[in-house]
Amino acid sequence: MLHSILRAINVPLLALSATNLVFCAFSGSVGADEFERFERTVRPILAEHCLECHSDQERNGGLRLDDPVAVTLAGEKSDTDSGRAAIVAGEPDESELLKRVTSTSEENRMPPDGPQLSDEQIAALRAWIESGAKWPARMSSTSGSDQSLPSASMASEEQLARQRHWAFQPLASAEQLRNSVQASESNWVWNEVDGFIQSERERHGLQVAADANPYALARRVAYSLTGLPPSTKQVADFAQAAASTGDTRAAQTQLVDELLSSPTYGERWGRHWMDWVRYADTAGDNSDYPIPQAYLYRNYVIDAFNNDLPYDRFLTEQLAGDLLPADSLDERNRQRIATGYLAMARRFGSLVERYPWHLTIEDTIDNMGRTMLGLTLACARCHDHKFDPISTRDYYGMYGIFASTRYPMPGLELFQAQQHFVPLVPDEEARATLAAHQSKIDALSAELQKKLDVCEQRALENAKRQSECTLDEQRRMNDELDGLLIKARKAGENLAAAIREAPSVPDAYAVQDDQPRDARIQIKGEPTRPGAQVPRKFPDILGGQQLDESIAAASSGRLQLAQWITHRDNPLTARVIVNRIWQRHFGTGLVASTSDFGLRGDQPTHPLLLDWLASELIRSNWSLKHIHRLILNSHTYQLSSRDIDSNLAIDPANRWYWKANRQRLDAESLRDTLLLIGGALDLTPQSTPHPFPKMKDWKFTQHHPFKDDYPSDKRSVYLMTKRLTAKPYFQTFDGADPNVCTSDRDQSVTALQALYFVNDQFVHAQAERLADVMVKAAESDTERIEFAVEKILCRPPTREDVELIQAHVTKLKLQMASRPERELWASVNRSLMRLNEFMYID
User: Fold this and answer.
1) CA dist., res. 784 & res. 786, Å (int)
2) What is the widest separation between alpha-carbon atoms in the chain?
3) pTM
4) What is the per-residue pLDDT across 474-488, written as a single tens digit (0 to 9) for each?
5) DSSP calls for 322-353
């Protein structure tokens, strides 16, 4: 009977499925007349205009119009983002549903697209709400039927699929994973990594490539761990050890340990981390204000990698180092500097009034999600995530944690001073230094905050009344708000001037706790449209932990957030970082989408290996160096990059690792290698800030932003990085974007890159420096050729190499008879530097 009624009123039967339309009764059963009236007048409206976006399957705004219990809840109990009840039985004018379908505002009206409800449909909804808004769950006994509709508690298949997604499942035990491996060629297997790889390779019917030659392997592992070529002695020792034993295993283990203990390891892998956390020495606002203290965080990262700081501790210090106990001032300062990760979030705008802090917090959550969890959390800022089980409530549960955090102000066009940086001297020393100025700064700061609070409240009131006012009233309200904003701007300028006059104390670009508070959902991501308040929490799919009341009242909750992220039961954190390590060694991750483990990301090619590595990371007390050793000492890592024709037909992308992937040197490795070859690379770490102008001289504006540059012969990781104006060299060779999480570097091949090696003065200078050394170190052409090839290509020349280069040298001697000899050999060096063998890691 129900189906025939729906056919008569032309409602698709799909609307009855558990994944689209599920109703239950407000109270008891209803009569046949009420049931028929609901089916005839109300259900078709909801099915046609509402349920595509507001059902158990798609809860835009947190609203379900297929569950009468959900739509009648208001306040903290409400699941809707606005916190208001969609339907108030008997009160149509108090029902948000009716307000939205009758609204003339483009921002508020529903449905947002497509035809609006007719007057007759609106009247039907009004009459239904006035009569008590009853939703039938069961035909009454007078109807002669006992047919029930599906239960509202039934989860949709799509929701279940999201929850069952591989990335959200617990890690399997290492023993279970090892026992699942079946590889017939056991002699080929050197460690557990090989067992997982070989098992899949055999399953796909693939042959394995031969091992790489010792010279290529020594170069590969050196770049992989340090971003620099191996020394001539390291190459010779490695090749000799391999030749004497017949294989490279012992030599490889020794070389890996040697490189992991080198300070250049931390510089290489610190640079990788800086890619992911979008490190920069400027703020990214309209004027791109400089941050002289940013280098402290960079050096913290490098030291953490060199000291093999446990990864869970590494993350905890960056999220909440200021909230951890410390036994000394040095330890306290190191942990405070670590929170530079949060301070590093992008800044926007140029005004202290109406400053868009919500965008900085969004950038924080987005980067934390991508870098640490492999999730695109920011997609839930305006609505529930379209693909992953992350709700808007999850997002604002985390938002409240960072809204309870005080970010430092690096400077703005109309606030040209630093504020809220964290002192690195004892508190009493900082107070003594600032004593003569602190009372004035505090008073001006309190005055500014008071004016900003008034502006914020007025802006919220104006936004709330906007749709109800005439144009003249709207103009008057906006003019009044502008007047308040101008007063706040003046207060900000006075405060900035007072800060510039005060003496400075050593400080860090770091965060600290602010007034603890839960956040309100921002409707459509707009802070001027506050919705329901959400307790600070972790996403439901990852545990859904909330802050205890005592902690929530006294702290931001950042420490608890760090503990949730690094908890052993969180399946994402360990998986994400071991996948990133694998990607940087092999060129592609076991999960190719390294910053997206969600439903739109790639499936892992070797899920068992991924989980085993993650389990090993946790078992080894989160030691990243342990993971490096497991991977680099595997037989899989030793393979050559040569193709096998039969394999190419089956696996052209090398998803099953039957050979090594050839990778291009990244921009930093290329520059550092050229400097090293020329003898100009300064390998001492940079322990001082860049020579930025003094704060009293800051005059940067959006039309004249900070654009200085500070050339250096130190490693590229120490170069000053601007957010808004990238160096042309790094643009040419696919450097990281300091505005976003750079998951992996592009490997483009362009004419500009070729022209760089032909014309750039930097390349010419390094080639000439090497030529000077060659001319002095060797007398014969053959010796000089051997010297150049070993220095540039990290291997001895073949006889064919010598003959080819010698012919080139002979020709140049005739053409350049009157020119200095160093120019001839510089030409040879430039030719070698242009080879693919130099540009790529084989």
Assistant:
1) 5
2) 114
3) 0.86
4) 888 888 888 988 998
5) GGS--SSHHHHHHHHHHTHHHHTS----S-ST
